[in-house]
TrEMBL record:
<dbReference type="Pfam" id="PF01553">
    <property type="entry name" value="Acyltransferase"/>
</dbReference>
<keyword id="KW-0472">Membrane</keyword>
<keyword id="KW-1133">Transmembrane helix</keyword>
<comment type="pathway">
    <text>Lipid metabolism.</text>
</comment>
<keyword id="KW-0812">Transmembrane</keyword>
<protein>
    <submittedName>
        <fullName>Lysophospholipid acyltransferase family protein</fullName>
    </submittedName>
</protein>
<keyword id="KW-0012">Acyltransferase</keyword>
<keyword id="KW-0808">Transferase</keyword>
<dbReference type="InterPro" id="IPR002123">
    <property type="entry name" value="Plipid/glycerol_acylTrfase"/>
</dbReference>
<dbReference type="GO" id="GO:0016746">
    <property type="term" value="F:acyltransferase activity"/>
</dbReference>
<feature type="domain" description="Phospholipid/glycerol acyltransferase">
    <location>
        <begin position="85"/>
        <end position="199"/>
    </location>
</feature>
<feature type="transmembrane region" description="Helical">
    <location>
        <begin position="21"/>
        <end position="42"/>
    </location>
</feature>
Length: 254
């Protein structure tokens, strides 16, 4: 894994204030929405999903209002509207774990099983068909990803996978895990690569959120038919790395 860039970004009073207000909003809104979803556990999945979507819409509105942080998406036309797909996404921040739901839907995501133990928010998440894996047991985690991933895809859900496995700071590179590509090979569903620079504005392990515009690039469909998982993975990784260079160049030029 390469080393991340050293950030020269300075936080002022507005950044601290906006980040604090957003944090307060997240805590209270998560409690309220978590209770609402848990209380509606008997409702059909699309209705529970819609409740979560409303929370995400409000969260991103508050993110823009409090922190001056928004996003732009390029390549929406690459997302199929008549079938599901596997999204292999860059992972830099907590932002993409929620924001991708605004333009890739309906979806589920591969996540740490421990997240489902968080009171209210995690409990509610458990009702939304996540693919929750135990990273300590890699063999079982891979089996669960493939078995549940195929089931979710057949149900019409996009499956979001972060092949780096953990959040990686801007400028750093981590070898892609093969799980998402193996899911594609086994299921026959296509892969959509996705790159973004959310870590520049909502850094990993950071309380602070900085103003700006997150750039998202969605790549063309990568067919999984008659391809080995390593080739699918290599194709997605190459596209994402190239797109990240373009995003960085655009940010520096702007």
């Amino acid at each position: 894994m390469t080393q991340p860039r050293t950030s020269s970004r300075q936080a002022d009073f507005r950044v601290y204030l906006g980040s604090t207000l957003l944090f307060i909003y997240i805590v209270f809104s998560t409690l309220i929405v978590g209770v609402a979803i848990l209380g509606g556990f008997f409702l059909p999945f699309p209705m529970r999903y819609k409740i979560a979507d409303i929370w995400i819409d409000c969260l991103l509105f508050m993110l823009k209002l409090c922190c001056g942080l928004s996003y732009e998406v390029e390549g929406l036309e690459n997302i199929p509207r008549d079938s599901a797909a596997i999204i292999l996404s860059k992972h830099q921040s907590a932002w993409e774990t929620v924001a991708l739901r605004q333009f890739i839907f309906p979806q589920t995501a591969v996540l740490k099983k421990s997240l489902l133990q968080i009171p209210f928010g995690g409990w509610a998440l458990a009702t939304l068909k996540p693919i929750a894996i135990d990273r300590q047991n890699q063999k079982e985690a891979l089996k669960m990803l493939i078995d549940q991933g195929i089931q979710r895809l057949q149900e019409g859900l996009f499956v979001v996978v972060f092949p780096e496995g953990t959040r990686v700071a801007p400028g750093a590179h981590k070898k892609f895990n093969a799980g998402g590509a193996m899911l594609a090979q086994k299921s026959g569903f296509p892969v959509i690569p996705l790159a973004h620079n959310a870590g520049e504005y909502w850094p990993r392990n950071s309380f602070l959120k900085y103003p700006g515009v997150i750039k998202v690039k969605i790549g063309p469909v990568i067919s999984s038919i008659d391809k080995k998982s390593k080739d699918i993975n290599a194709e997605a990784e190459a596209w994402i790395n190239k797109a990240m260079l373009e995003i960085d160049a655009e940010r520096m030029a702007g």
